[in-house]
Amino acid sequence: MQAKIHEFEESAASAAHDKAADLVHPVHDRASEAGGQAQAQAHRTQEEASFFQQTGEQVASLAQGAINGVKNTLGYGDKK
């Protein structure tokens, strides 16, 4: 009789474990997918920030070149 009770307990525990795994698996998959999407978005955001920084530096350089050109034309620049 003890063996049957032990066998029943093991069977119930195994069934409960399997059911819990079935419930957790889809949640885990969605969480993993969301984490991957968040990581991809962070990477895109970082790339965009880098692009805007480089573009800003280029615009600033062009503006400084234009200012220097006007100064030189008017005789106020470093080159006389």
UniProtKB/TrEMBL annotation:
Originating species: Salvia divinorum (Maria pastora)
From the broadest rank down, the organism's phylogenetic lineage runs: Eukaryota, Viridiplantae, Streptophyta, Embryophyta, Tracheophyta
Question: What is this protein called in UniProt?
Answer: Uncharacterized protein
Q: Where is the composition biased (Basic and acidic residues)?
A: 16-32
Q: Where is this region: Disordered?
A: 1-50
